[in-house]
Amino acid sequence: MSEFILHPQLAADTHLVAPLQLCDVLLMNDANYPWLILVPRVANASELLDLDDADRTRLRHEIDSTSQALRDIFQPDKLNIAALGNMVNQLHVHVIARFRDDAAWPKPVWGAQPSRPYAPQELDERISALRDALPLRM
After folding, report:
1. pLDDT tens digit string along 52-82?
2. Do 91 and 40 form a contact (C-beta atoms < 8 A)?
3. In the predicted model, is pLDDT for residue 34 greater than 80?
4. Mean pLDDT in the chain?
5. Do 138 and 21 contact (CB within 8 A), yes or no?
6. In this predicted structure, what is the pLDDT of residue 14?
7. Could you give the residue ranges of the DSSP H alpha helices within the chain?
8. Which stretches make up the HIT domain (predicted)?
9. Which CATH class is domain 8-125?
10. How far is CA 32 from CA 2, 60, 62, 91, in A?
11. Is 110 helix (H, G, I), strand (E, B) or coil?
12. Contact between 10 and 93 (Cβ < 8 Å)
């Protein structure tokens, strides 16, 4: 059996927020949007179909938990949830808080504007707020 290894592109583009039962919750290093990525720690998974029934159910619960955390903290106008994997085929799910006044609205966030990496203090504050919002939902 293969060991789970986070795809190098996801490792380069994100910061760990917290491990949940199935997924690592990662924060996309783009301060333009509150943007989480859930990565199931399942070796060689590239599609939802690669998860067994129990893991698919667990993933759904973890998507709901992270979505609720984003809603509680940021009160977005919309939550975008997607598992695309065209550039990174490792199974991962984007959960993005969207606002009618964000630079990409109403289009997808990809390529809408240059990524704005978090400043160190801003990153610490964002991760702390997210961690505080997640424990009751893990």
Report:
1. 999 999 999 999 999 999 999 999 999 999 9
2. yes
3. yes
4. 95
5. yes
6. 98
7. 8-13, 53-74, 120-133
8. 36-105
9. alpha beta
10. 36, 26, 23, 24
11. coil
12. no
